[in-house]
Amino acid sequence: MRIGISLNYSGGFKEAADHVVELEKVGVDIALVAEAYSYDAVSQLGYLAAKTSTIQLGSGVFPIYTRTPSLLAMTAAGLDYVSDGRFQLGIGTSGPQVVEGFHGVPFDAPLGRTREVVDICRQVWRRERVNYTGKHYQLPLPADRGTGLGKPLQLINHPVRERIPISIAALGPKNVELTAEIAEGWQPVFFYPEKARSVWGEALEAGQAKRDSELGPLDVMVGASLAIGDDVEERLAWVKPQLGLYIGGMGAKGRNFYHNLATRYGFGEVADRIQELYLSGRKDEAIAAVPDELVRSISLIGPRGFVAERVAAFADAGVTTLLVMPASTDRRESLRHVEELRGLLPG
């Protein structure tokens, strides 16, 4: 099992980058930069590439609607170049709240678009002339074929690697099945290990049955807040604002994937309450309504023995990369907790 770090996209990035440098020295394997509606992740990943030398870097995630497939491939190839082959492309659909509300782009056909994006990216990295006819993307455009504008192009540069690993953030059964079929990695959010098989087991098995063996085993990359100690119980509350936002506010009723996930975990009534409060503007009450049980189940917060039990539960559920988010304002304490966590990993 690897240890990674997920950078908080709403925090101070330069301070976080300095912390990544420290984490690299103690052997943290990968750092992911999210992209929602804060600074773009590309500029931050380029900055990290210049500040580090061994830690793997990844996007966690680039929404597929906000860049063309070819631009995603170009960006990934560029980040892989400046990092000397250390980049992993994380993609996802995000959600209607961000895609339609912030970018003004229709949120449509997430499954079909994801598959075609992956196909096109891999074609670009192989430096093939991109001649692709899909349902959602046609390169060149049909109207330009047979004209001077319709000549298929290939990437000018020679990428460091012709196969950059792709991980996909997926929650719904069909999207998880697709991920298990075509991607090197899977990034589920709010992962509850004891519930994972009942929620995603069939989808993962269906996708892996169609998986190309050349992809290797699926890297299950799971985020979890981290604080180890006998006096960290109050830090469960630090996780609640994010859960309140996502379950309550990241999408309208009936179009909120995170609300649906909480419901599938067995928290349907409380998820409804959180959403009702959040959408009516009572955000503090929505956050307060997030149950400790849910936070504790998806986090690594508590005494050393408890955290060891949770690590074992994540491992039993198939997790191969723990992307921790230290629940601390003290960088030295965060570093200590990450080092202590390393000693609790199986194997």
From TrEMBL:
What the entry lists under SUPFAM superfamilies is as follows:
Bacterial luciferase-like
Q: Does the keyword tRNA processing apply?
A: no
Keyword Oxidoreductase attached? yes
InterPro entries per the record?
Answer: F420-G6PD/mer (IPR050564), F420_OxRdatse_Rv3520c_pred (IPR019951), Luciferase-like_dom (IPR011251), Luciferase-like_sf (IPR036661)
Q: Which segments constitute the Luciferase-like domain?
A: 6-320
Q: Keywords, A to Z?
A: Oxidoreductase
Q: Which GO terms describe its molecular function?
A: oxidoreductase activity, acting on paired donors, with incorporation or reduction of molecular oxygen
Protein name per its UniProtKB record? LLM class F420-dependent oxidoreductase
Q: Organism source for this protein? A: Mycobacterium fragae
